[in-house]
Structures
1.
Amino acid sequence: MQRLLAACLLFCAPWLASAAALEELKLLNEQPVSGVSGGNLSGLAWCDGALWAVSDRDDQQLYRLESDASQWQASAETFVAPPAPDAALPWGLRMRNWAAGQVRGGELDFEGVSCDAAGNRYLVSEAHAAVLQLPVIGEPNWLKLPPSLVRQARASGMLLHFNSLLEGIAVDPAGERLYLAAERMRRGLLVVHKQRSTWRCTGGCVLFSEAGTAPAPEQLGAEEQPRDFSGLAFHNEKLFTLERQAHRICRRSLSTAEVERCWSFAAEALTPERLYPPSYGLAEALWVDQDGAWVGVDNGRFSRADGESRPIIWRLSAPKDGWGSKP
C-alpha cells in the first residue's frame, strides 16, 4: 500500500506543482473606461480594428472604445433588438429575470460579445439564454439556436439558477462554430454548429460541465470558492476561459473543453490599491490575441481602494512561451 501511495505521489507531483504555482501573467497597462453605463462592463471583443464593450445594463447599445494615454473613452453604437425568443426556461426563472431587469435595468442582460472575421458581432443574453447578432449588413436578429441547447444544458445541471445562466460567448472566425459558457452551479461549456443557415447541436450541445469549488488566490486569504466562468474567447483553435474567482485564464480543448493549461493574474489584480469591497470588482470580460489578453473588470458602481470608480481594462502579456498547444 505504501509503495502504491509513493508511486501515485511521484506520478502526480508535476501536476500538483503546476496547479499550485501557475505562471503569472504580467500587467502591461491598465486604463479606466469612461462612458459605460453604471460601470457595468460585462464583455469585450476586438472587431474591425477596435476594442468593443458591452454592458449588462444596456439593451440598445454597444460601445466602441478609443484609448488615449490615460483612459478608454466609450462611444455608444445604438441598435434596436427585436423581441427575444422563448428560450424554454422555467416560468419562475423567467419571472425573476424579468423582475431583475425592471429594477436594475438591462432586461436583456447582455453578458458577453464576440465577432467573426467578417465583422458580425454576437451578444449573449443571460436573461433569455439567447444570442443576438448585429450583422455587418442588415438588422439585428436573434440566432435560431436549437431548442435542445437549453434542454441539454439543464439536463447536465446547468442553467438551473437565477443569475447563473450564460455568461460568455465565443465565435470562430468563419462564424460557423458558436461557444457559450454557463456561469456557475454548475458551470460548463456549450457548442452549436452552423450548417448552411441552421444552427445545430452536432453530437450534442454540452461539451463540459462541472460543479465543486476551487482554492481562492492566497492574496485573498479566503476559503474555497465555487468554480465559475465569467468570460470566453476563441483564439488559434482553442477556447480560453476567464475564471474570475480563481483569477486565472485557462486554455481548453475545442472538442472536449478539458483544461490544458492555466495562467494566473492574481499577483497583478490583487495588489492593495486594486482591491474592491468583497464580491465586487470581479473580472467579467475576456479577449485573447497573439500578444496577450484584454480583461475587463465590472466594478458595479463601487470604488476600489485607490478611489477609482470606473470599470477597468487590463492588458496582460501573453505567456512566456505563448498561448500555444504546449501542455
2.
Amino acid sequence: MKLPGALTLSELLPVAQAGGFAVAAFSVRYLACIRPVVEAAVEADSPLIVEISQRELGWFAVTPRAFRDALERALQGAGADLPFALHLDHTWELPVIEAAVEAGFSSVMIDASALPFEENVALTRRVVEYAHRHGVSVEAELGRLTTTDKLEPEGDEAMYTVPEEAREFVRRTGCDALAVSVGTAHGVYPVKNPRIDFERLAAIRALLPGTPIVLHGGSGLPEETVHRAIRLPGGGISKMNVATDLENALLGAMGGLKRMTSAELDALPGELRALGLEAVRREARDKIERFVLSAGRASAYRPGVEG
C-alpha cells in the first residue's frame, strides 16, 4: 500500500508545469538525510520528491521498506501538510521496482535507455502496466545521460533525445513522465555551465504538451540554466533531480569524510552528524528557493487555496 499522503508524479508535476516552477527530486541516499530535506520543504512551504535509485540502494545498504519508513517518520515529525512523492529513481530490474511498490512508493522509474528503442518501449510498457494496476506512476527515460567525468564539450549529441521519438515513445508506453537527455549529466560538472540544447528541449515540449518532462543531473547547474529550462513556452521541465550536491554538503560539513553506508553515518558522533544534517537542510532549502522556484507553492496543491 502506498505511503499515506504520497502523490504520484501525475498528481504532482502537472501543477508545477502549469505554475512555472519545478519540484526538486532529492536523492537523499542516507536515511538520516530524509528528515532535514523534509524540514527544508516544510520551512519553504514547497512540494517535494524524495527518491533513491537502484544503484544507491546498494551503495548505501538501504532497503525500499527502510527508506519508506524513514520518510514516514520524518513527515510525522514535521507535522505539516506537505505535497510529496516517494519515488524510485533509475532502476532497470523489475524485482526492485516490485519491491518498491510493495513497500509503498508512489512512483517508480524504469530506465531502459541503454536498450534499443523497441526494447525500451516494450520494457517500459510492461512496467507501466504493472505500476498503474497499483496506482503508482512511472517515469521513463529516452536518450542516454552520461556522467560528468565522461562529459565531452562536443560530440554527445548522438545520445540526446530525439523529439519525434519522444512523442512516439510516450504514446506507445503510456509513461507518466519522461526524463530526457539534452546535455546534462550525473555528478558535478567540470565546467561552469555545460551546454544545454534548449532548442531540442523546446521541441520535445512542443510535441509532448501534456507530459511532464524531467531533467536529471541538477547538481552543479547554474540557476539561470535551470530557470530557462523551467520557463520554456508551454511549461518546461517540472522535475529536477538533485543528488551529488546534497551528499557533498553532508560530507563537507563533517570535515570531508568519504562516502559511507547509511548505517555508518548513523554511527558517527551525534555532534558531528548534526553538522552534516544541518548542511543538508540548508542545501535543500537553497535548491527549493533559488533553483527550482517552488518555495510557497505547496498551497497550489491544497483545495481552495491559491498557489
3.
Amino acid sequence: MRSRRGRAAVATLTVVLALTAGCSFGPPGPDQAGTAPNLPAPSIAATASDAPGDREVAVTVLAKGLEVPWGIAFLPDGSALVTERDTARILKVGPDSDADGLEVTEAARLAEVRASGDGGLLGIAVSPKYTSDKTIFVYYSTATDNRIGKLVLGQAPEPILTGIPRSPQQNGGALAFGPDGYLYAGTGDGTSTGAQAQDPKSLGGKILRMTTAGRPAPGNPVKDSLVWSSGHRNVPGLTWDKSRRMFATDNTQPKFSELNVVQKGKDYGWPKADGTAGGGKFVNPLMAWPTADSSCGGVASLETMVATACLLGKRIYLLDVTGNGTVLGTPQELLTGKYGRLRALVAAPDGSFWVSTSNQEDTGKPDPEDDRLIRLVFSDGGAGRS
C-alpha cells in the first residue's frame, strides 16, 4: 500500500462538529509524557446526540498535508514526533502554533528505511529519560527484516533488535514503553500459514518485551526470550490503562479485527483462532469486529475509556471498560466515514486523543487536505477534561 504522492507537511487548523453514534457490536503511556501543546481553542462547541450514553466531542484538525502518518509520541515540551511510513521522515508537530494550526517541521529522515507494502518507518517511542538522554526508539523496515533502533534526532539509528520477520504485509510496528519502564513491540506473522505466530523461536506474530539495549527484560515468561505473548496476526497498536492493564490491536485476519487484553505468556490463537479462541489454551479477544468494519490500528486509553482507530472501518470505536476488564454497555462509533482511513491513536499529555488519517496510500481515497492529524476533546470528564 504505497503513498500516492510526495509533498511537504503543512499545518492548518480547522474545527468541525462530530457526534457519536451507537454501533451494533457488542492514561497516556510513559512514552507520551510531557506538557500540553499550545493549541487554539475550538471555535465550535460539539452537541451530543440523543442516544443514551453518547459523548459530546470537539474535533480539531491540527495538521494537514502529511503522508501516511503511522506513529505518534510526545516530547517533554508538548510537541509530538510523528513518523511517515513511506517517506521515512520523523516530523515534529508543535508545540508552537498560530492561527493556521501547529507548526510542522522535519526532524529527521532515516536513510536506513526501505518502505514497501505496509512496511517502512512505523512505530515510535520516546525514552522515559528523554530529558537527559535525548533518545527516541523507532520500529522500521529494511529490505530484509524489521528492526528496532534508537537514535538522537539528527543521527542515524543504532539497531538494538534485528531479524523481526519482513513481508509485503503483516509487519506489525507497535512500539511503546510500558508502565514498568520496559519497551514493548508488536510484530506481524507475515505468513499465510501463521507458522511464525506459533513458533516460540520466531519474533513474528508476537508482542515483545525488552530493555533499551534490546535484550529480554527481567520477568519475561521464558528467561532469555523477548516474547511476552504469542499467536498474533499483526499488532499495530499497544496501550495501558490506569490499572496497568495492557491492550493491543490485532488486524489483517480474514474475518475479524481484534482488541485484546494482553496477559503475560498467553497465546492469542492465530492462525487457529480468528475473532474467537473457542476455549482451550487460547485467549478470547475483548472485542472482535468484522474486518470490513474495522481493521483497527492505534489504541489509546484514558480513565475508563479505551478507543481504537480503524482503517477499513474508517471510524473510532469507544469502549467503557470496567475494573474487572469487561466492556460496559454498547461501544460507540466516532468519525465514521468523515475522514476516511484512520490509523494512529494516542492519548496526549493534556488528556485529549490524537488520531491520524491514512488516505495517502493505494487503498485510500485522499482529498486535498490528506493526510491529517486530528485532536479529540470529550466533555464528560474523559479526554481533554479541564
4.
Amino acid sequence: MPIIVTLDVMLAVRKVKSKDLAEQVGITEANLSLLKQGKVKGVRFETLAAICRYLDCQPGDLLRYVPDEEAPGEGG
C-alpha cells in the first residue's frame, strides 16, 4: 500500500502512550493499534482531526505517500 502510517513515530516524539491517545480520541486501543500498523482501509476525518489535535501535529506528520515500487514489503 502506498500510504505509510507513521503514527507510532509521532507517539514516540510526543511521548504519548497509545492507551492515552485512544482514550482521548474515543477509539479502542485495538483500533488504534490497527491504524498504527497501517491495517485499516480508511480513517474518519473526525478521528484524524482528534488525533492531530491531541498530538499537536498535522495529518502529514502521521501519513506519507510512497509509490508502490518503493513501499517496504511490497512488490514482486
